[in-house]
Amino acid sequence: MIKFSVFKRWWSQKRHLSMASLPTHTTQCPCCGLESVVPQMSQGESANCPQCGQLLVKINRNPYTAPLAFVSAAWILMLLVGSQVYLNMDMIGVSEHLSVIDIFQNLKHHEYGFLATVMLLLVFFTPVLFMSMYMYVHIALYRQHYLPGTNLCARHMIRLRPWLMVDVFFVATLVALVKIAAVSDFTVGPAFGFVFVYALFLIHMGINIHPHWLFYQLSQLQPDAQPLCISQHKPNTLYCTRCLHAQNHTDNECDVCGAFLYHRIPNSIQKSLALLITAMILFIPANTFIMMSTDSLLSSAQSNIFDGVLILWKEKDHLVAVIVFIASILIPVVKILMLMILLYSARFQLLLPPKVLNKMYHFVEFIGRWSMIDIFVIILLMAVYRTNIASVTPGMASVYFTLVIFATMLSAEVLDLRLIWDRYHQQQRAKKHASHRP
Fold first, then answer.
1. Burial class (CB in 10 A: 0-12, 13-18, 19+), 4
2. Phi and psi of 388, rounded to 5°?
3. Are 332 and 362 part of one and the same domain?
4. N- or C-end of the chain: fewer Cβ atoms within 10 A?
5. What is the rounded CA–CA span in Å between residue 432 and residue 427?
6. pLDDT value at position 1?
7. Is the model's pLDDT at 388 over the cut of 90?
8. Which of the four pLDDT bands, split at 50, 70 and 90, describes residue 230?
9. Are residues 421 and 274 in the same domain?
């Protein structure tokens, strides 16, 4: 048996070494574009932008050992989730034992390829890819040895964070169980608890990735590593949008993380607007076409999103009705309206103070993925009700609604928030210039 003192020494290994620190240097906020000096930092310390409050850099208290411990535990939990029973159902003498893999196979068997692909990507493939890259990068950090493709893995690992939807799937399960409890008996299996812990571990790993510190550490592992030091302000200095480190304005590629360099995201407003218009167009069939068809021995019903909310409310499932309304109607509408405000402010004139717009943007980023609750609920109900007694069939609206979610998430992702602050500073200069006129 491993003694606690031995475990404590292993957990603390490399915890207080000076190589985890950051020297004094300049960086630029990825949200407002303010250039500021970051003082020397060590483990457990963080620095925020003085203008908008955005977190610029943070060094975790245990940046080498803890990530490997969490990702190793996450791999074990993922295997347990896939091998154990998720739900046990009993409906009029018909028993069903479902694992998460069974839910996916049921979609594939009934030739609902789009929903099967969505579930496979967001609940299986994306987390597996994220954990693989996360482990690869942190093995390099732990061993203090640069591995081929580490920067590439780190960049894609950061991009995958919004698309980890195991937590959304778990919440969707809770919503579906309220509906299932009304017509059948159920018990949760071991995988139900494992999914909850697995989701928490993925959330923890995602929020504890800090690109500025991470890419600096990886750059120092390379043979030709350059020391990071404070630099004088230069008008043409470029700051990488991925790692936030200063670069020569003539360079096309960041020598710290390997990302492409640009002053502002090229055609950011145009790309974001195109995706938003796409989402608005797709939102029409998503709300008018059939979302779900329910067939049983006693009745048969087809409903779109709004009809489904009304049916749930009339059946006294008030909590589920409110959740579905918020996730399927309110959140998409709020996202579209907020993105319209952000785009108008970036292109023409600020409709709100820049700090409010900054918070609005981060709110849109946060809520974007939670609209997938309705899609996961349909997938779960379809997996449960697939007998001769009752069955649930997804409609075409589920495809359009999923595309709406993806389009709004991408629209927010490609929008360069610094354009709003550029517009704010431009308006401030115009006001100042006008006040000095005779």
1. exposed
2. -70, -20
3. yes
4. C
5. 9
6. 44
7. no
8. low
9. yes
Domains held by the chain: number: 3
224: number of Cβ within 10 Å: 6
Tell me what pLDDT residue 297 has.
55
Are 54 and 199 part of one and the same domain? no
Arithmetic mean of pLDDT, 331-347: 93
CA distance 153 to 159: 10
Considering Cα of 166, then 168, then 174, then 178, what sign does the dihedral take? negative
Domain range enclosing 192:
63-209
Q: Residue 92 corresponds to which tokens in the numbers above? A: 């009029």
Claim to verify: residue 68 and residue 55 sit in the same structural domain: no
Q: Which DSSP string corresponds to 287-353?
A: HHS--EEEEESS-EEEE-HHHHHHHHHHTT-HHHHHHHHIIIIIHHHHHHHHHHHHHHHHHT--SS-
CATH for 387: 1.20.140
The answer to whether residues 246 and 237 touch, using CB atoms and an 8 Å cutoff, is yes
- How far is residue 34's CA from residue 50's CA, in Å, rounded to a whole number? 8
- 296-315 mean pLDDT: 72
Same domain, 395 and 252: no
Compare 419 and 328 and report the one with higher pLDDT: 419
* Same-domain check for residues 139 and 156: yes
pLDDT given at position 222: 80
Indicate whether 37 and 104 sit together in one domain.
no
- Tokens coding 317: 């499932």
Domain assignment present for residue 19? The answer is: no
| pLDDT(298) > 70 | no
C-alpha dist (Å) from residue 437 to 85, 349, 423:
75, 22, 21
Separation between Cα atoms, residue 429 and residue 415, nearest integer Å: 24
Q: Can you give the pLDDT at residue 93?
A: 62
Is 88 inside any structural domain? Answer: yes
Q: Is the pLDDT assigned to residue 384 strictly greater than 70? A: yes
CA distance 161 to 186: 33
Q: Are residues 124 and 203 in the same domain?
A: yes
Q: Is the pLDDT of residue 76 over 60?
A: yes
pLDDT surpasses 60 at 7: no
